[in-house]
Every structure is written in C-alpha cells, then in structure tokens.
Specification:
Elements lengths: L9 E5 L4 H12 L3 E6 L2 H13 L3 E6 L5 H15 L4 E4 L21 H29 L2 E6 L12 H24 L4 E8 L8 H4 L9 H8 L13 H8 L10 E4 L10
Parallel strand pairs: 1-2, 1-4, 2-3, 4-5, 5-6, 6-7
Helix pairs in contact: 3-4, 4-5
C-alpha cells in the first residue's frame, strides 16, 4: 500500500476526534485523504482538523449528533459542498455508560431503561443513520466503502456490559446485512466491513480496567490480559493497518467481513 493510496479520497469519520478514530484520521490524512471529522462537540473536532491541516493535510470539522437524522443530512451536505463526493465512511461514534453496566450497587434488575436505551441508540442507531445518509451519496456516485466498529463483545458478551455487548453484536449483524443489501439492490462497488477491536484503554472503559485511585489493573483488567496472548492492551495505532487495508483497493473483494484486532483474545480458549 503506497503512501499516496488515498490521495484525493474523501473520508468521513463520525466520532472522529475520539482516541481511536483520531489515530485513523491522522493516518488517512498522512496518506493524502481529505478527512471530515464529525463530532457532537464541534470544538473538539476542530482541534483535530486544525492539527491535520497544520501537518499539511486537508480536513474539515462538522458538529453533529449522529442520532439526529436531519443533523447528519446537514453534515453530509457540508461535506458534499466542500468536496463533491464521499469515498469512505467510518462509523466511529459509540461508547458505553456506567449506568448501563452492572455492579454490586447496580443489579441488572434495576438498570435504568433510559441508560440501556441510550447505549443501544448511540452504538447501533448511531451507525445505521450515518450509513443511510452517506450510503445514499455512495449509491449516487456508484461506489464507496463503509467501515463499522464492532467489538470483542460482539462475539461473546462480556460480564457487566449488558447494553454495550448487545449493541455491538447488532453492529456485526447490521454490517453483514448492509453489505448484502447494497450489493443486491444498488451497487457491487460499495463495500461494507467492520473491525472488532479487542481491549484498548480509553476514557470510556478505563474505570472498568484500572483503579481510579492507584491506576493499577482491576481484577477485570488482569483477567483480560491473562486471556490476551500478546499480554497487553491495544494502542490506537494498532487499528490503523487494518483500517487502511479495508478502505483501500487492496481489499476490493473483502465485503461483509468483521476483522478482529485483539492481540489473540478471540483465538484463546483460556486453556
């Protein structure tokens, strides 16, 4: 894959200023992509877009709530007005809420429905709605690539994370469904895939994996590393190679796939 593989291509990234997606944005920009950073907080997106421009790239920031269809349509209009097309969409918006995870003081039977619903909505609807809006543009231009973000919890649910695990499992199903649907109904030149990251220390899961006071691993964090053959948490840069490959012409026959990036976690039986 050449350094200019993405020269002139337009890549839209929802949740683009997050820890993981910002690494993707930097890698794509470095390789010549025009990057549109979509983020609920515009000021956060603008910081990253400004960094990409300062490094010689082309980038814009757009404030958008991915659960607001009209706002996503407005964001798409801004991208199209600036660049005239969209070659790839990375659905990076997602996350979990403490209130939607179980704990000794949060039994499953008492989890607030609103907290559970918000995790479902952010992860699953927050993937479906941008795929509808930007997918329509790809249909009109006759090609494109959509990349969703699944999780290790998509395959086997993790303890405590009831809503997040179910929502991420839904993203795997949606990825496969959309891949078939777009090919059969619209164009075989629009590809849909997903990556399934293993365990990365982010602000959203740090409270589950490390102690707030000491920074030491929690029993859960220790168990995860014990079941990860490479013996470490992932870094944002660990995702970049697979993302670049899946969005590139080198993966032109990869469609409806979900690629684990997990240090061997999904391959390990525990014995």
């Amino acid at each position: 894959m050449s350094e200019s593989e993405f020269e002139g291509r337009v890549v839209v990234i929802t949740g683009g200023a997050g820890v993981l997606c910002s690494a993707m944005a930097r890698a794509l920009s470095k390789r010549g992509a025009k990057v549109a950073i979509l983020q609920r907080r515009l000021e956060v997106a603008e910081v990253l877009a400004a960094q990409l421009r300062a490094d010689g790239g082309e980038a814009i920031s757009v404030g958008v709530d991915v659960l607001d269809r009209s706002a996503v349509e407005s964001a798409a209009a801004q991208v199209m007005a600036r660049y005239g097309r969209v070659d790839a969409l990375i659905n990076g918006a997602g996350g979990n809420r403490t209130e939607a995870t179980t704990a000794p003081d949060r039994p499953f039977f008492d989890l607030p429905v609103e907290a559970v619903r918000s995790v479902f909505d952010l992860n699953l609807l927050g993937t479906i709605i941008p795929s509808q809006v930007f997918g329509r543009e790809m249909v009109a231009q006759g090609g494109g690539s959509i990349l969703n973000i699944a999780s290790m919890s998509s395959y086997r649910p993790l303890t405590k994370t009831v809503a997040y695990s179910a929502a991420k499992a839904g993203i795997v199903n949606f990825t496969q469904w959309l891949a078939v649907h777009l090919s059969q109904e619209y164009s075989a030149n629009i590809r849909v895939n997903a990556i399934a990251p293993g365990f990365f220390l982010t602000e959203q899961n740090r409270y589950l994996l490390t102690d707030r006071e000491t920074g030491e691993l929690t029993p859960r964090g220790e168990a995860i590393l014990a079941h990860t053959p490479q013996g470490r948490f992932g870094t944002p840069e660990d995702l970049v190679g697979a993302v670049l490959w899946l969005l590139s012409d080198s993966a032109s026959f990869v469609h409806g796939a979900v690629i684990p990036i997990d240090g061997g976690f999904s391959a390990f039986s525990g014995v």
